[in-house]
Task: structure prediction
Amino acid sequence: MILTVTPNPSLDRTYELPGLTRGAVLRAAADRVDPGGKGVNVSRAVAAAGHRTAAVVPLGGPEGALLARLLGEHGIEVAGVPVAGSTRVNVTLVEADATLTKVNAAGPELTAGEAEALLETVRVRSASADWVACCGSLPRGLPPEWYAELVARAHRAGARIALDTSGPALDAALRERPDVVKPNAEELAEAVGRPLATVGDAVRAAEELLDRGARAVLASLGADGQLLVGGSGTYFGGARVVAVRSNVGAGDASLAGFLAAGGVGEAALAAAVAHGAAAVRLPGSQMPTPADLDPASVTTTADIPLDRPLREPAR
Result:
């Protein structure tokens, strides 16, 4: 059972366009609407893999009602917390060459009572969860320490915590020792306050997060692959991807694969890489099913290429 927490969920509308011209009236070649938000995407990928998952989400307005309905259609149990504001709607424009343009709404501002209701819902649900995945930025009204309190309460309930956030919220939560944190390269560079130019730079940055409280770090390095650093060892993995259709939600799919495979060690990293590679081959924020995975394309190793330059250095 994987419980996910998305404090600022969304409806994600994706339009595929031949090209993007400012000021023009454009006709979409295809469009879709998906339940969105990083934790929601993790639940969608877990459900697509055939595992049980529940999503803790604040829900407001007709947008919130539609989000709840779509989650149910994906086989996700909804642990909704009513809020006064309306659930946000994000728009992604995908051009024929796979260039993405995203417009993300701010979302509602939560009251102190709504923030506490979310925490208590997570605490109660954590007792029956193997993992709690806490994902995404915090909405207006929630202080950076909110995730730290969530981690503390879920730990007291006996659950393991995966945290995917950044900035002050990550800094504050590290003191509560989340079981795994999942930054991308830019977030990892931000967390340590220096650029990352090589795989070795990323390893040393991940080790610094361990020193600050994280028990393991699963770092997405974009086209360069993924890195796992923790008590089970240090491993590096990658996969062949011929064509990228959309990278929206790929990191969330990776985290879902990692947790569904146990969340520890090289085999879990391989599952993370396979899920992330499958996600970028799919349109919009569609999550991969087992049929979309290509485990044979995945390679993992404990022999880390420390001097390998990152194709997309993080600054």
The chain is about 35% helix and 25% strand.
